[in-house]
Specification:
There is one protein chain. By secondary structure, this protein is of the alpha+beta class. The chain folds into 2 domains: about 60 residues; about 80 residues, 3-Layer(aba) Sandwich (Glutaredoxin), CATH 3.40.30. The chain contains 7 helices and 4 strands, in the order ααααβααβββα. It has a 4-stranded mixed β-sheet, covered by helices on one side. A hairpin with a 2-residue loop joins strand 3 and strand 4. Its cofactor is [2Fe-2S] cluster.
Length: about 160
Amino acid sequence: MKHNTLPFQGTPEQEAQLKKVIANHQGQKGAVIPVLHEAQDIYGYLPIEVQEMISEGLDVPLAEIYGIVTFYAQFSLNPKGRYQIGVCLGTACYVKGSGDILEKVKELLNIDVGECSADGKFSLDATRCIGACGLAPVMTINDDVYGRLTVDQVEDILKKYE
């Protein structure tokens, strides 16, 4: 998997917010996960620069922070695009061809699952069942739901967001 190529673009305001969060949790047992959640709310993801600030602020080894971030699915090492694409790989969607839909999105955007396009416009995730099994296969883009998809429809759908 290729790694994110977007440079970290944290602002001084975000850093000040994070420092405040860290200060509020210093010395608390089990503070790492709540701080990581709040940091992800601030930045949208948890790049190494943010993990380093948390490591230093809480006096917890960076390896431990990284281990937590990579273990729990709710944490992301990569930024999210303006348009967050989710392709459902739940059983009903998968049986009806969502794996092919996912491959087409990856091909068209030249990104892999968990990545963000170089222009910051799109990010891609493979999701579990989203509860729209009757519409299988399903893809979401932010709050828009596309159902009964075929591979041939994917390109036209993505063009709507360019």
